[in-house]
Design a protein that fits this description.
Mean pLDDT: 86
Radius of gyration: 26 Å
Number of strands: 0
Largest sheet: none
Low-confidence stretches: none
CATH topology of one domain: Four Helix Bundle (Hemerythrin (Met), subunit A)
Shape: flat
Order of helices and strands: HHHHHH
Structural class: mainly alpha
Length: 162
């Protein structure tokens, strides 16, 4: 009597490689989530040339730039609320039983207007913050930005000029 032969177990290399890649991907996902949860939403933050970044890079300018931030804070907060409200209006226009493309277009125009007003105020605050810098401070910021953008990743994606 022949006994049935058990099939040989084969290791699926593709499955092992896939598992390793997934395990390697977990820290990347965790880093993205942690960074998103700890994003600085304070007025005047959000970039290498943002007023709060200037204050951190040039401590001597802290008082002058803080005055500029304080002068714009109430307006920017209001404009942020308006921008969120405008987006809610778009959803309400989309979900309304009496939906019309014209109502949706008007709501989308409201988003454009709200975002434009917010961006205009933010850029105005940025311009005023940069205006208080001395020529030497401006040059120091320019050099800091240039050094920051010399990473291998930046160079890899930079358009080539030949």
């Amino acid at each position: 009597m022949d006994q049935p032969v058990a099939p040989k177990r084969r290791v699926s290399w593709l499955l092992i490689v896939s598992l390793c890649l997934n395990i390697a991907l977990l820290p990347v996902i965790a880093a993205v989530l942690i960074r998103a949860l700890h994003r600085d939403t304070e007025i005047g933050s959000g970039g290498v040339l943002a007023p709060r970044s200037l204050m951190a890079a040039l401590p001597d300018t802290r008082a002058d730039i803080q005055k500029i931030i304080d002068a714009h804070t109430a307006k920017i907060s209001e404009l942020r609320r308006n921008s969120v409200h405008a987006r809610r209006q778009v959803f309400e226009a989309l979900a309304a039983p009496d939906y019309t493309p014209a109502k949706l277009a008007a709501a989308l125009d409201g988003v454009t207007a709200a975002d434009t007003a917010l961006e205009t105020e933010s850029v105005g605050m940025l311009g005023q913050s940069l205006a208080v810098l001395t020529p030497a401070e401006r040059q120091a910021i320019v050099e800091k930005v240039r050094k920051r953008n010399r990473s291998w990743l930046f160079r890899m994606f930079r358009p080539r000029t030949r």
